[in-house]
Design goal:
The complex is a heterotrimer.
Chain A: E1 12-21, E2 24-34, E3 39-44, H1 50-57, E4 65-70, E5 73-74, H2 80-89, E6 90-93, H3 105-115, H4 121-134, H5 150-162, E7 168-172, H6 180-195, E8 199-203, H7 207-213, E9 216-221, E10 224-230, H8 231-236, H9 241-250
Parallel strand pairs in A: 3-8, 3-9, 6-7, 7-8
Antiparallel strand pairs in A: 1-2, 1-4, 4-5, 9-10
Helix pairs in contact in A: 3-4, 3-5, 4-5, 5-6
Chain B: H1 10-48, H2 51-65, H3 69-82, H4 89-114, H5 118-126, H6 131-146, H7 148-161, H8 173-184, H9 187-216, H10 218-223
Helix pairs in contact in B: 1-2, 1-4, 1-8, 2-4, 3-4, 4-6, 4-7, 5-6, 7-9, 8-9
Chain C: H1 6-41, H2 46-60, H3 64-77, H4 84-110, H5 113-121, H6 126-156, H7 168-179, H8 182-213
The chains are: A alpha/beta, B mainly alpha, C mainly alpha.
Chain lengths: ~250, ~230, ~220
């Protein structure tokens, strides 16, 4: 259970985040809030800093300025307890799925359940079957990743994170590496998750998905939040030339 | 050529050869196992450790790989004895062979570990695994599978190199050969027999490694594909 | 018991020269026999392939010490009484030839198939293909592993001590037998081997890296 939040407190707070890679400033004062149960789509051109932002929220990169808070705890606090807390609260799905090739689908999912959550083997197996059912891949439980298509592997990756019952799920361009026919099955799973009330932040190029499913859209450009707002409103009335151009080119 | 080949001595002496071969097997299986553990720990230290640790492991590996095994064995057996630590020939042999195997294994496993993409570690990290858990469950087994042919070859090489321990009177196969040939004066025949035994042992060890691989690498056993 | 002194170190260093000489003999001998072996392994004639393959597998599956004994006593049977240097040289040549042959076979096979095809289309016969197109490229590929194997040769000359040749290891044993300081002496011997081998190891690694960078 996260720290006692009022139901209206944002579950993710990003304040004025600055991130440099050497001399290059990739994030230049990024800030927005995410409420519990919201689906956020982060869009923008390559190099706008969107993936870096997601990795900062997940604690995979350190920030040079500003502050990120997840479930009331600051990201980047030193100590293994703080790190473990972040890992419990946040689940991340990568563009290249990153399944463990030497383990079966079941073991991919139960690994963290047994090692981190210290669940028993039977409980872990039950949970694995459950989440695989949620993503529609129950019959693949004993398969190895290489026997699955890209879309199936990505769905397993989502199930793997889901099994740990995070408060927030981060998706880093999860359909970008897939053939077009396979993206819809993954987007369907994400849509289902959103409907069930999961808080999601998704870096994506899928504008159709963003328009249909996202509550909040964040358009990033040159390391800044260029435009942000409720989905329908943002797409109906784009304010900046850059966003207009971006939307035009993505369609 | 007026030499008459004569293998008659075998009738009496074959139990000696068996005993010698058995000691060779015992010594080398121990050394391969301990050497592999030592090498894996050093490889992990080399890849994930701090600069001092990396340099220490590097020094260990370079020292062993650039000096002859014969001298390493002499230092363990004669050298340590002169410093007060008297070890039996067999124990000295295992120590020297283990240290030797460890150095070569370090390099082999290091290559294997470094071939595991960093993204695998990131995924493990995001799932909440500690560094150690990630190394044990996500890195080591696939790394080992990738470099398994090299590991197996190194094991066979170590078994062959164990013949050098005959020089500190370990009663393994080569020492047995030396003894028998000085008894019977049929030098050439004796070493031919022993060469054949070593060839058989090489084949046996390769088979053994293959079998171990089948047990360890379940995915490969089931799917037959490389990692 | 004699005290350990500078003369002993000099004795070791002098013996090291024999180590270097024996290494060179083994390498040159191994090269002269190894190249034909490599070519035989790649020959279209099945018998040649089998002979070369059989020889290489025999040598690679037998401890070097046994190969040394076999050639030493084998030469004795054939009626040759040879000085230890020559006996050791012949034995190490047989050993080096097998390994170099195998390494070089791999390097020749590493030359892309397309080079064979292109030279074939230009009308070169097999000998010309080897001499003008394939071997020159194979040589470039072969340099790093060959330099690496030279390290093995230098280390393996230590076994010549067992058949009585006075190189560095035997010299160490001789000095030890009069001074009884094995730890110091064999550490010094190890150091001298290290000084001989380490530069070769570094060279092999550097060459390997450069070869990959050029791709």
């Amino acid at each position: 259970m996260p720290a006692a939040d009022a139901a209206t407190d944002p579950i993710v707070r990003i304040e004025n985040v600055v991130k440099d890679f050497g001399p290059l400033r990739v994030l230049d004062g990024v800030g927005f809030d995410v409420a519990r149960g919201q689906t956020v789509a982060v869009v923008g051109r390559s190099g706008s800093g969107k993936s870096t932002l997601l990795r900062c929220i997940a604690g995979l990169e350190t920030v040079q300025g500003g502050r990120i808070e997840v479930c009331g705890h600051e990201v980047g606090r030193p100590g293994s307890a703080a790190r473990a807390q972040l890992r419990r609260d946040v689940g991340m799905v990568f563009q290249s799925y990153n399944l463990f090739p030497h383990l079966t689908v079941e073991r991919n999912i139960t690994l963290a359940l047994t090692l981190v959550k210290k669940e028993s083997k039977e409980a872990a197996r039950k949970r694995a079957a459950e989440v695989l059912g949620l993503v529609g891949l129950t019959e693949k439980i004993r398969s190895y990743p290489e026997q699955l298509s890209g879309g199936q592997q990505q769905r397993v990756a989502i199930a793997r994170s889901l099994a740990l019952q995070p408060q927030v799920m981060l998706f880093d361009e999860v359909t970008s590496a897939l053939d077009p026919e396979l993206t819809s099955e993954v987007l369907a799973v994400m849509e289902d998750l959103a409907r069930r009330g999961m808080t999601m932040i998704s870096v994506t190029h899928e504008m159709g998905f963003a328009r249909r499913v996202a509550d909040l859209v964040v358009f990033m450009h040159q390391g800044k939040v260029w435009e942000t707002g409720p989905t329908a409103e943002l797409f109906a009335n784009p304010r900046t030339a850059e966003f207009k151009q971006f939307v035009g080119s993505e369609l | 050529m007026s030499y008459k080949f004569d293998f008659a001595f075998l009738a009496d002496k074959w139990p000696d050869f068996v005993a010698g071969a058995w000691l060779t097997i015992q010594l080398t299986i121990l050394s391969i196992a301990f050497g592999f553990l030592l090498g894996t720990v050093c490889a992990v230290a080399r890849v994930y450790g701090g600069p001092l640790l990396r340099r220490l492991v590097g020094a260990y590996v370079e020292t062993i790989r650039n000096t002859p095994l014969l001298i390493q064995i002499f230092i363990v057996y004669f050298g340590l004895s002169s410093l007060g630590l008297k070890l039996s020939a067999e124990v000295s042999a295992v120590i020297a062979l283990t240290v030797n195997m460890g150095a070569y294994t370090t390099e082999i496993m290091r290559a294997g570990i470094q071939s595991i993409l960093r993204t695998q570690l990131e995924a493990a990290d995001c799932l909440g695994l500690t560094r150690l858990q990630a190394i044990l469950h996500v890195v080591l087994l696939p790394a080992m599978e990738r470099v398994y042919p090299s590991l197996a070859s190194q094991g066979v090489l170590l078994m062959l190199a164990s013949s050098i321990t005959s020089q500190i009177s370990t009663e393994e196969l080569t020492a047995t050969a030396n003894l028998v040939q000085s008894d019977t004066y049929r030098s050439f025949e004796v070493y031919v027999i022993v060469a054949v035994v070593y060839l058989a042992l090489s084949a046996l060890y390769r088979l053994g490694f293959w079998a171990i691989g089948q047990v360890l690498f379940e995915r490969r056993r089931r799917l037959g594909t490389p990692l | 018991m004699i005290q350990l002194n500078a003369n002993h170190l000099l004795y070791l260093l002098e013996a090291a020269r024999w180590t270097v000489l024996l290494s060179l003999i083994a390498f040159l001998g191994g090269a002269v026999v190894g190249l034909p072996l490599a070519l035989m392994r790649l020959s279209k004639v099945g018998l040649l392939r089998m002979l070369a393959s059989g020889y290489i597998q025999l040598i690679q599956g037998t401890p070097l010490l046994i190969v040394l004994f076999l050639s030493y006593f084998g030469l004795g049977i054939l009626g040759y009484k040879l000085i230890p240097l020559v006996a050791a040289g012949i034995s190490l040549t047989l050993y080096a030839a097998a390994f170099l042959g195998e390494i070089w076979r791999g390097c020749i096979e590493a030359v892309p198939r397309t080079q064979w095809e292109a030279s074939d289309c230009l009308g070169l016969n097999r000998f010309q293909q080897y001499a003008y197109v394939v071997l020159p490229q194979a040589v470039r590929i072969a340099i790093p592993p060959t330099v690496g194997f030279m390290v093995q040769i230098v280390k393996n000359t230590s076994l010549a001590s067992v058949i009585g040749f006075v190189e560095l290891s035997r010299a160490g044993q001789i000095v030890n037998n009069s001074t009884f300081e094995p730890f110091v002496i064999f550490s010094a011997v190890a150091l001298i081997y290290f000084v001989l081998c380490y530069p070769l190891s570094v060279a092999a690694r550097t060459l390997e890296r450069k070869a990959h960078a050029g791709r």
